[in-house]
Specification:
alpha/beta, Pyridoxal-dependent decarboxylase, pyridoxal phosphate binding, 2 domains, single chain, pyridoxal phosphate, 16 helices, 7-stranded mixed sheet, decarboxylase
Length: 457
């Protein structure tokens, strides 16, 4: 054994304790850590030859890289849609690495059963029925890829071909309809070989990002064959919701696969006050939910659901002698793009056991209340203009007098108190503040608004 490895093995408890101490200090200071640390030029170090051992690596990380890490797990990081990591999910994530299980196969451990239990809990949480099965993937984008890959196979089924065997050429051009598709839809269509040009946008309701269901019906009426409809349960800019129940009702007249992007908006199902926004989600053929957003588990973690596990198996099955027979309950390596997989379910399992439905409902409702608080402050300020109602947990706004939004985003990032991301909405550059971190409080909103007033002045 290499001497550095032997040394670390013999002193492993001390090494882990040193890492725990560093992590504890980082978490203790998270509320005051800069939400963003805009990086300067970085000069890569040469590849180590003999190595410095675990303690040496820890010291090198602390000196070279740790100061430049953003407080993205903290309460005032409002960019993208970013959760933190609840205490229980963090403990679960540490144990995920410790036990280092590969839940791809059920031949050697109970890890797959833990994942199946967790997926079942999540399906219940989002109001999905027993006809929906699911699996963990890396994030919303890979969940989208998985769902649309199953949808592509469904189109092949309608055409009498197996796309998984014969390829996209046997299927020919496809049509994907959506009102306000997330950019990951285009990425998935490119990745899957259906092509970005397959996407046709459908008019949205006036002043909304929600699709006009009557216009969607007209688009479906004009088609020659089946299609994929991508609906939104929470758009990125304004958290607008398509009328999922009305869209699903169109299936009585038209032949289409319903894919719903519920990456973070799906969490509205946890609160009685907002659950009506996702009525009809249970009618979807495939559903995207991103857990490292509002479930507040560490990156990377998402789940995909589908009603057609048979088609999913047809797309992703991996037939190899060393993997054994594919049984009635397929191993996860036959259901997702990955073979080897991290046990992403464990942090989610820990957080669900620790805080239950009620604890996660409280996080959702608090985040919505805080977003509305910021929205009210912005709406009352002469310096800012609220561009859309605060429907859930995202505030979309712009400087009242116009100006360089990118420069404002940079100034906010350099201040370090908070971090926001830019966007375009209604034909103009805008900013968006997304509340999804379990740590965020009303005091954080006060500080964030103070920064906004300061930078715009």
């Amino acid at each position: 054994m290499h001497p550095r490895l032997a040394e670390d093995l013999n002193s492993l408890p001390e090494l882990l304790d040193a890492a725990r101490k560093l992590a504890g200090e980082a978490l203790a200071g998270l509320s005051e850590r800069a939400a963003a640390v805009p990086p300067g030029p970085a000069v890569p170090a040469p590849l180590p030859l003999e190595g410095a051992g675990g303690r040496g690596a820890l010291e090198a990380f602390t000196q070279r890289w740790e100061p430049g890490f953003a407080g993205s797990a903290g309460p005032r990081y409002l960019g993208f849609v970013t959760g933190g990591a609840t205490p229980a999910s963090l403990a679960g994530d540490w144990l995920t690495a410790t036990y280092d299980q590969n839940p791809a196969s059920g031949m050697d451990s109970s890890a797959q059963d833990l994942e199946r239990e967790t997926v079942g809990w999540l399906a219940e949480l989002f109001g999905l029925g027993a006809d929906h099965s699911g699996a963990f993937v890396t994030g919303a984008t890979m969940s989208t890829v998985t769902g649309l890959a199953i949808a592509r196979e469904w189109l092949g089924e309608r055409a009498g071909v197996r796309v998984s065997d014969e390829g996209n050429a046997a299927l020919g051009p496809v049509t994907v309809l959506s009102g306000s598709p997330h950019s990951s839809i285009l990425k998935a269509l490119s990745f899957l070989g259906m092509g970005r040009s397959a996407l046709r946008t459908v008019p949205v309701l006036p002043g909304r990002e929600a699709v006009d269901v009557a216009k969607l019906a007209e688009a479906l009426e004009a088609l020659d064959g089946p299609a994929i409809v991508v609906a939104n349960a929470g758009t990125v800019n304004t958290v607008d919701f398509d009328d999922l129940r009305a869209i699903a009702a169109l299936k009585q007249r038209f032949d289409f696969w319903l894919h719903v992007d519920a990456a973070f908006g799906g969490f509205a199902a946890l609160s009685p006050g907002y659950a009506a926004l996702v009525e009809g989600l249970d009618q979807a053929d495939s559903v995207v939910v991103d857990l490292h957003k509002w479930l507040n588990v560490p990156y990377d973690s998402a789940v995909q659901f589908t009603r057609r596990r048979d088609l999913q198996l047809r797309v992703f099955s991996n037939n190899a002698a060393y993997l054994g027979e594919i049984g009635a309950t397929p191993d996860f390596l036959h259901l997702t793009p990955e073979n080897s997989r991290r046990l992403r379910a464990l942090p989610a399992w820990f957080s669900l056991v620790a805080y239950g439905r009620d604890g996660h409902r409280e996080i959702v409702e608090r985040c919505v209340a805080l977003a509305r608080d910021l929205g009210t402050r912005i709406d009352a300020s002469p310096h800012w203009r609220l561009l859309a109602p605060v429907r859930l947990n995202v505030v979309c706004f712009a400087p009242a007098a116009g100006g360089d939004v990118d420069a404002l985003v940079q100034a906010i990032a350099e201040d370090g108190t908070t971090f926001l991301t830019p966007t375009w909405y209604d034909g103009r550059p805008a900013l968006r503040a997304a509340f999804s971190n379990w740590r965020t409080t009303a005091a954080d909103v006060e500080r964030v608004f103070g920064v906004l007033e300061r930078v715009v002045g």
